[in-house]
Amino acid sequence: MKTPIQAIGIICFILLSSILIISCSKVDPSPLLTKEEGVPYKWLINRVQLNVFTNGVLVKDTIIPRSPKPSNYIDFKPGGNFEYRFNTNFSNFGTYQLSSVDSIIAITPAKTYKLKILTLTNNLLTTRSTSSNDPLYPGSVVETYHTLIR
C-alpha cells in the first residue's frame, strides 16, 4: 500500500503535467517571409489600433471598430499599385514601394502611408506607422498599428 505522501506526490505530478500541456500555446507554423514574397497580396484588415502621445505621454490607446458591411482591406498589387479601404465604400488608390529592410511606402492622393513591417508570415502582416501631423490630433504623435490577415 502506498503512503499518503506518495499518493499526494503522484496527484501533484499529474496535475502539474496537465497544466503544463494545456498552457502550451500553439505556434504559428507559417514561415517568416521576405517582404518581396509576402507583401504583394490583398490583405484583410483585422484590426486597427491607435496610440496617441502628447508630450511623450500616452493619452489615448484605442482599437478602431470595424464596420461589418464594407470589405476592409489593403491590396498591395504586384507591380506596385496600392488600394486601401477601411470602414468606407470608397478606396484610396495609389502606388507603393518596398523600402529599406522593413518598410512599405504607399502614396495616394489622400495620404502617404509609411508602414514599418513588424511581422510577416503566410497568414499575418502587422505594421506600424507614426505620424506627427494627424489633423485629428494636432500637436500629438500618432502610432497606427494594422493587423492584416489572409
Structural class by helix and strand composition: alpha+beta
How many strand segments? Answer: 9
Query: Any low-confidence stretches, pLDDT <50, length ≥5?
Result: none
Shape: elongated
Provide mean pLDDT, rounded.
Answer: 85
Order of helices and strands: HHEEEEEEEEE
What is the tally of helical segments? 2
Intertermini distance: 58 Å
Structure description:
It is a single chain. By secondary structure, this protein is an alpha+beta fold. It contains 2 helices and 9 strands; from the N terminus they run ααβββββββββ. A hairpin with a 6-residue loop joins β4 (81-85) and β5. The mean pLDDT is 85.
Q: What is the strand and helix layout of this fold?
A:
Blueprint: H1 4-23, H2 35-38, E1 41-54, E2 57-63, E3 73-76, E4 81-85, E5 92-99, E6 103-107, E7 112-120, E8 124-131, E9 141-149
Antiparallel strand pairs: 1-2, 1-3, 1-9, 3-4, 4-5, 5-6, 6-7, 7-8, 8-9
